[in-house]
Structure to design on (275 residues):
């Protein structure tokens, strides 16, 4: 049994990653097209296709922001990350979630990540993770536009919390000769306009005037971003390396949770009761 004094000693001796050898951690972003992960002790981000198996027999277990094959997702995570964890270790895991994925996404994701035998699973909205990666000032309302391969989200954050969000099942992976980049631009403008129309405060307008934060692979497409800035009549602020912003923000939150005494106490307590 861990006494309060012993727990204090454990917290006092807890070291930051990568120097901490007592525990491990995973930051995970499960996208429809790409899965990105950061693991404690490594400086690079794992960035691979979201497929159950490599090769011709591959299937896509995550589609348009929904986990459609939970066992397949679990097998993929085990293949990608199982061998990267310390033997016998139970990682602290933080997972980004689509803002409108809701309980269904979180439930399926938590089931899938059990294959990694986590001590604790924390979830964070993708938009907030992006804001953390960008060192955004969360003291003011913030619009986050995340243009992914198969999903585009527009989220309003106020004091760091989600107050409004819209999404469309359209992304850069859908663009072809019949679906021009303007389709994505028009969809984003429509979502922002809808937010403005329904907002009884000035938060959305204030955030728009400051300029939306841009993330996802679409932030690297001038044919999207230039038209979007013109249509919104607002400055855009692309995040550095926007395609990996969500997992980098999750990694920063993970490291903060790992270093915080209360988070450590919670994870150690849960580990003691985990079979």
């Amino acid at each position: 049994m861990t006494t309060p004094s012993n727990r204090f000693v454990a917290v006092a001796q807890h070291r930051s990653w990568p120097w901490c050898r007592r525990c491990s951690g995973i930051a995970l972003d499960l996208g429809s097209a790409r899965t990105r992960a950061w693991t404690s002790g490594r400086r690079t981000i794992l960035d691979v296709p979201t497929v159950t198996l490599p090769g011709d027999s591959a299937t896509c277990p995550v589609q348009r922001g929904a986990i459609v094959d939970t066992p397949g997702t679990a097998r993929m995570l085990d293949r990608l990350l199982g061998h990267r964890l310390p033997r016998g270790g139970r990682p602290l895991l933080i997972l980004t979630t689509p803002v409108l994925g809701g309980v269904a996404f979180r439930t399926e994701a938590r089931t899938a990540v059990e294959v990694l035998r986590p001590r604790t699973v924390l979830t964070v909205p993708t938009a907030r993770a992006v804001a953390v990666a960008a060192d955004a000032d969360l003291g003011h309302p913030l619009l986050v536009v995340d243009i992914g391969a198969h999903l585009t989200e527009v989220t309003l954050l106020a004091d760091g919390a989600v107050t409004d969000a819209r999404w469309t099942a359209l992304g850069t992976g859908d663009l072809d000769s019949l679906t021009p980049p303007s389709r994505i631009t028009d969809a984003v403008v429509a979502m922002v306009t809808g937010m403005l129309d329904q907002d009884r405060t000035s938060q959305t307008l204030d955030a728009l005037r400051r300029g939306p934060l841009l993330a996802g692979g679409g932030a690297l497409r001038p044919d999207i971003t230039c038209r979007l800035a013109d249509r919104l009549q607002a400055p855009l602020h692309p995040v550095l390396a926007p395609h990996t912003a969500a997992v980098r923000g999750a990694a920063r939150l993970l490291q903060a949770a790992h270093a915080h005494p209360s988070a450590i106490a919670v994870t150690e307590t849960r580990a003691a009761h985990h079979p």
